[in-house]
Specification:
The protein is of the alpha/beta class. Helices cover 35% and strands 25% of the residues. The structure holds flavin-adenine dinucleotide. Keywords: Monooxygenase, Oxidoreductase.
Amino acid sequence: MKKSICIIGSGTAGLQLAYALKENFDVTVIERRSPDQIRQGRIMSTQVHFGPTRNREKRFGMPEWKEQKLIESIHVTIGDKKLFTGMLKEPALSIDQRLSYSHYIEDLTSKGVSFRFEKVIKENIEALIDNFDLVIDCTGKTGPLLPFPIEEDLSPFKTPLRKCIVGYFLGIKPNTPLGVNVTVLPELGEMFEIPAITERGPVTILFITAVPNNKLDVFKGIKKQEEFTLKMKSTVQKFFPEIYKRIKEDEFTLCDENSFLQIAFIPVIRRPYLFIKNKLVVGCGDSIFLNDPITGQGSNLASYCAEKLYETLIEYKDSEWDAQTGESYWNRTKQYVKEVTGWTNAMAMPLPEHVIHFLLQGAQDQVKADAVAEWFSNPAKAYQVFFPSKVKQ
Ligand SMILES: Cc1cc2nc3c(=O)[nH]c(=O)nc-3n(C[C@H](O)[C@H](O)[C@H](O)COP(=O)(O)OP(=O)(O)OC[C@H]3O[C@@H](n4cnc5c(N)ncnc54)[C@H](O)[C@@H]3O)c2cc1C
């Protein structure tokens, strides 16, 4: 008989795990929102999936998004100076999570994975632990449901690093080559302009990461669609003139009434396993590895860890899932988590001189520019540049 696995939460982590595990195990997913509620709900992220994540999605047979314009590059501007356009080795793609999550849930259901649409509360979790061979907590940043121990070295913050302000817009002429457009305004925050796909077609995401209580942090209290659009337009005009030039005044609007978001949270990294009633429980994705979105790594990290958890569970498929299994999963993910988190936390601080020097070289040297673009696909490369003394030769 196949071992039974309960995945709580069907976001990036839970869904990739469901695809990966469904052949070898008896998988049940519990998700608090139905596909329709997700589809009709608020946007949740900006979700750029870089090459390695897209390759993992292929590896696990996740449906592909054909005929979409792919993200080929990263444009970098500091202050009002455009430095360079770095080309990605493999293209990236951003699909509105409302579209991808609802589609994957329906596809998995059609392939025999069992879904239950209900909210798991802490009081019910012990019953799940009793009833399944393994429970995986994939509840995202509202989680975890269980007290996975905090890794203090990787969790130095007591307040959010940025206010995240996101809108999915129509009426912006895309940049060329099509890419993520990063503008760093020292001390104030950043703007990420991201081409994305929604159920209604292509959009441009404007994603401001504002240093709290500084000049970019100007969306406080805005709850209405029209007010959000007007504030975004005036903010772009004032701080991001190159993007403003590409806005078509009469077409500039949010793509739907739920396509804007304001959120701030404290990054925290936890050890991804623990024992409840002597039984192993694991976590995957934001519920255990929660970083600030400033480097766009959350979904990519969730996908990486889902693959490592899959590989661990396959290796230990025929033995008891115990401390060795949990430790093996943590050992497979630790280094990558450290690199993503170290780079992400450093990006939210004033950039060190040697990093600014590296970025400036990108303006003269296309090889360096392409190397910066590669940071987003392969965070170990970014970590090497930010922390040369910590990297073993
Ligand atoms: C503004 C913003 C921009 C971002 N941009 C990027 C980016 O460009 N690139 C990138 O890689 N990452 C980005 N991220 C991060 C990325 O969205 C997350 O890291 C990723 O979605 C994490 O996936 P997950 O499966 O862990 O959690 P989620 O996607 O949050 O999924 C968790 C799921 O669990 C369900 N759930 C929660 N609690 C319960 C419960 N008690 N019972 C049942 N179900 C439950 C939820 O309904 C949800 O469906 C961004 C995040 C934000 C906030």
